[in-house]
Inverse folding.
């Protein structure tokens, strides 16, 4: 199943557009990263202008039900292209319908096509459901992730 094709289960995945800003804002809020519609439009614009990023929107019956962000980058340590899932979220009412797995398959396909040797995703230590989902999709614990906010 390729991008833009509706699967037999009724899930359609396509690139997000500026007009999807309200849906993207709602999905990012569910993921724990609230933003306004205008902020979401700015983020979509940024991703659309960067050939190494993609933002996919999943729909069922024409209604947004999930999104996935993907970034491609060169890994100095690995000496190869690698992909990073920057966001993956499914509307709670659409969970357990294959939306997350479909989005994951699409970003993996894009990454392979771009020549990425590896794909990675990070999730909060408290998100047991997300961790189980990724493990069930063949992902393994790879490293410990650290972060520091760079304020003023």
């Amino acid at each position: 199943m390729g991008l833009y094709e509706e699967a037999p289960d009724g899930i359609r995945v396509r690139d997000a557009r500026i007009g999807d800003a309200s849906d993207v804002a709602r999905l990012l809020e569910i993921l724990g990263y609230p933003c306004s519609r205008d902020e979401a439009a700015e983020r979509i614009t940024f991703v659309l202008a960067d050939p190494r990023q993609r933002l996919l929107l999943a729909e069922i019956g024409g209604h947004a039900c999930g999104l996935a962000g993907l970034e491609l980058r060169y890994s100095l340590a690995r000496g190869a292209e690698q992909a990073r899932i920057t966001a993956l979220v499914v509307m709670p009412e659409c969970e357990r319908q294959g939306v997350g797995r479909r989005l994951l398959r699409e970003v993996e396909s894009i990454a392979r096509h771009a020549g990425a040797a590896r794909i990675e995703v990070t999730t909060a230590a408290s998100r047991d459901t997300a961790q189980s989902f990724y493990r069930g999709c063949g992902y393994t614990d790879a490293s410990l992730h650290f972060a520091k906010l760079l304020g003023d």
